[in-house]
Amino acid sequence: MTERTFATWLLVAAALAAAAAAVLFRHVDPNAPGNPLPVCVFYAVTELYCAGCGITRALHALAHGDLLRALHMNPLGVFMLVAGPLMLLHVRGWRPEALQPLMRVLLSGKFWLVLLPGYMVLRNLPWWPFTLLAPG
Length: 136
What we know:
This protein is 62% helix and 0% strand.
């Protein structure tokens, strides 16, 4: 199997997984008690929000067309739903000139080493405006 064929199958698998997730989040409400979706282990142990806390509820909100609710649950997670595929396309060779400055930042390891722990700390601070980062 060539690298190009493998990449094509990987893209097809990702598209099918995304479609399955959309169907799941359309029909399963993570806000309902007793739902089958897993809870955040980090939050269950520490009672602190991790960088991913709220992403399940954000995906549920997006599956129902509620972008504002999704942003309220996890703004970084919603951003990553756009940035992730753009970074993947960039790595695979799609490089529009207008996106080059953004890609230089997003593909920098230092950026993520600062952003993720910083986001995690800020969303746990009990003062406004940081309380806006905590999942509601």
